[in-house]
């Protein structure tokens, strides 16, 4: 039983690698978006799950990553991966700048600041026509690795999977790091933690910066998948759907982030008949999930898991 | 010119102030910032519009029904979504209000369509001459209605049993509970009141713009800015903060640029949080452990 977790992880990996086989082009595309959303869910795991802070402006960081990467690739001729890194860094810098003022006060100010920030970013990108193409948008080249262009989403999916796994690994290590532990202490009792000498602002700024970085990377990857950027892609509704998927997948688990990504990518396919009511259904599932399944979908899996395992002897 | 700008700015600010009052009311009573406040107001206004056009009720009857309707909307929402989360971590309640936002926002579009509709004007379009400036009756009417709401709220908090109980609960929830204040009731009343005030603000703004499922969003953002300017825990502070925002918005649009008319609120939020995070009108509160 000691190795159960490792075995489960390996099984999940195997499934992820095998998934695209037998699917068509549209299937590859959907799988690629699952990975891209899962990276965002991962970033919200860091921010909400560990940091206990909420953001309703992650579409802003997503946009910064997408445009940052697209611009350095197009205008400065950066290679694809370097562009993605730049996209992440741009988002991270702005993440730190947004978190900085909001942290001097407790409560919901950070959420409000991120909301304003996302709108601000969208509007600036729209108005700054010389750089971003404004209304017409921006055409982004296909991703290429070491000189080879990734023609299909089939190969791109594996790149995205690799990035997701890398970031998931970083998230795991971050949770065990000094900052990760401090964040958890702060979340349990901010006053008690601060009395033990944990500086609240710096740790939360780090969490926010990392979260913005992940989201920026995801946005950059998304831009190369879409091939065309316009500011409408980064609306408030996107920020809200991000939050929804992260909560529904589970905020305390990397597998939950994956489930969240799958939810957001597949729900529009499944709910297609409901058209206009789609976002209403998102809202209802979000509230039901917070009320009855605060651990997200992944907690269901974990629950089944613990039932099947023989109870451990009391220590 | 400037008098006119200030007057219409004050009118705009009064609408923001009403929404900010709802935000602060709920925040004081339950420590939750209700992100869905604007959308609930919009939804309530749409219901009023439906009563007006589909059910054929006369305008005065609809206006009379607006406040009770708002109360009902708030009470039902609180019961269904907030009550079960009472003992959960505060982030969960916040997430639930964001869920409410999505529900109300898209339900309105879904039920009543995505096209803006004209809402009948509540005041006559003839401007009034005051101190040599021609001021729209609309502005004066909005300011008067807002003033009335503020006075009613003041009377409620000073002179009624429930009002005093709510003030006690907002100062110290635990102590109030021990003194026999029913804290779940105060939360319910706060949601009902806030929602009613929100619907009033929706009715005031709908004739100015158009009735549209997206109309309350920029109002909400500015109500946030005004409430933060005022300190988010003080009702008078929120009102003054919003009036400042309304006037500033008009002056900036007239003398600087209209491009960032809606997002300048974000700049104000950041500036206040940087230099005076407790707001202009409240003292910093040290939290007891």
Structure description:
The complex is a heterodimer of chains A (315) and B (289). By secondary structure, chain A is mainly α. Chain A has helices at residues 4-18, 25-50, 58-75, 80-102, 109-127, 129-132, 153-176, 178-188, 190-195, 200-226, 236-249, 254-270, 278-292, 297-308, and strands spanning 138-139, 144-145, 148-149, 228-229. Chain A has a domain at 25-235. In chain A, the strands form two sheets. A two-stranded antiparallel ribbon of chain A has the order 1-4. Chain A has a two-stranded antiparallel sheet with strand order 2-3. The longest helix of chain A is centred in the C-terminal third of the chain and has 27 residues, at 200-226. The model of chain A has no long low-confidence stretch (mean pLDDT 83). By secondary structure, chain B is an all-alpha fold. Chain B has a single domain, classed as ABC transporter involved in vitamin B12 uptake, BtuC (Orthogonal Bundle), CATH 1.10.3470. Chain B is built from eleven helices and two strands; from the N terminus they run H-H-H-H-E-E-H-H-H-H-H-H-H. Chain B has helices spanning 2-30, 37-53, 59-82, 90-112, 137-159, 161-171, 173-178, 183-205, 216-230, 235-255, 264-275; strands at residues 127-130, 133-136. The longest helix of chain B has 29 residues, at 2-30. The A-B interface holds A 48, 52, 54, 56, 100-102, 104-109, 111-113, 115-117, 119-120, 123, 127, 191, 236, 240, 243-244, 247, 276-280, 282-284, 286-287, 290-291, 294 and B 33, 35, 81, 84-85, 88-89, 91-92, 94-96, 98-103, 105-107, 109-110, 217, 221, 224-225, 228, 232, 259-260, 262-263, 265-266, 269-270, 273-274, 277-278, 287, 289.
């Amino acid at each position: 039983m000691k190795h159960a977790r490792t075995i489960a992880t390996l099984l999940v990996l195997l499934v992820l690698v095998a998934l695209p086989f037998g699917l068509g082009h549209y299937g590859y595309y959907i799988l690629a978006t699952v990975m891209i959303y899962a990276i965002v869910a991962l970033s919200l795991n860091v921010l909400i799950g560990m940091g206990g802070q909420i953001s309703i402006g992650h579409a802003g960081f997503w946009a910064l990553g997408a445009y940052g990467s697209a611009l350095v690739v197009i205008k400065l001729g950066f290679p694809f991966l370097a562009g993605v890194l730049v996209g992440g860094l741009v988002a991270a810098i702005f993440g730190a700048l947004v978190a900085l003022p909001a942290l001097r006060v407790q409560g919901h100010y950070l959420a409000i600041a991120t909301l304003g920030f996302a709108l601000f970013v969208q509007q600036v990108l729209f108005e700054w026509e010389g750089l971003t193409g404004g209304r017409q948008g921006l055409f982004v080249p296909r991703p290429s690795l070491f000189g080879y262009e990734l023609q299909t989403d089939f190969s791109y999916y594996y790149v995205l999977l690799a990035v997701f796994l890398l970031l998931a690994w970083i998230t795991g290590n971050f949770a065990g790091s000094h900052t990760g532990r401090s964040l958890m202490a702060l979340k349990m009792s901010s006053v008690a933690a601060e009395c033990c000498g944990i500086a609240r602002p710096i740790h939360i700024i780090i969490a926010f910066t990392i979260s913005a970085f992940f989201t920026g990377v995801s946005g950059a990857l998304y831009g190369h998948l879409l091939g065309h950027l316009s500011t409408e892609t980064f609306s408030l509704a996107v920020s809200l759907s991000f939050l929804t998927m992260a909560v529904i997948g589970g905020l305390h688990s990397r597998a939950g982030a994956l489930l969240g990504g799958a939810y957001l990518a597949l729900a529009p396919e499944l709910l297609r008949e409901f058209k206009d009511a789609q976002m209403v259904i998102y809202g209802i599932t979000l509230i039901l999930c917070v009320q009855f399944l605060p651990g997200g979908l992944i907690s269901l899996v974990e629950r089944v898991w613990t039932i099947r395992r023989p109870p451990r002897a009391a220590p | 010119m400037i008098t006119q700008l200030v007057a219409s700015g004050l009118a705009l600010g009064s609408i923001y102030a009403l929404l900010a009052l709802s935000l602060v009311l709920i925040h004081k009573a339950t420590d939750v910032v209700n992100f869905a406040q604007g959308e609930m107001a919009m939804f309530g206004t749409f219901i009023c519009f439906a009563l007006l056009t589909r059910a054929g009720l006369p305008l005065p009857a609809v206006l009379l029904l607006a406040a009770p309707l708002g109360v009902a909307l708030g009470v039902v929402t609180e019961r269904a979504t907030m009550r079960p989360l009472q003992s959960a971590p505060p982030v969960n309640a916040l997430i639930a209000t964001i869920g409410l936002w999505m529900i109300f926002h898209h339900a309105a579009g879904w039920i009543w369509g995505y096209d803006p509709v004209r809402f009948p004007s509540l005041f006559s379009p003839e401007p009034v001459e005051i101190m040599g400036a021609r001021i729209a009756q609309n502005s004066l009417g909005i300011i008067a209605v807002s003033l009335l709401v503020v006075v009613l709220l003041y009377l409620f908090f000073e002179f009624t049993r429930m009002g005093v109980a709510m003030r006690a609960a907002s100062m110290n929830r635990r102590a109030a509970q021990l003194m026999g204040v029913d804290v779940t009731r105060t939360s319910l009343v706060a949601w009902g009141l806030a929602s009613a005030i929100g619907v009033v603000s929706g009715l005031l703004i709908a004739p100015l713009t158009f009735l549209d499922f997206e109309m309350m969003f920029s109002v909400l953002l500015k109500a946030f800015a005004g409430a933060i300017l005022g300190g988010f825990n003080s009702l008078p502070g929120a009102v003054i903060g919003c009036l400042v925002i309304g006037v500033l918005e008009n002056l900036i649009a007239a003398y600087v640029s209209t491009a960032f008319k809606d997002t300048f609120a974000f700049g104000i939020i950041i500036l206040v949080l940087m230099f005076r995070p407790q707001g202009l009108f409240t003292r910093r509160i040290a939290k007891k452990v």
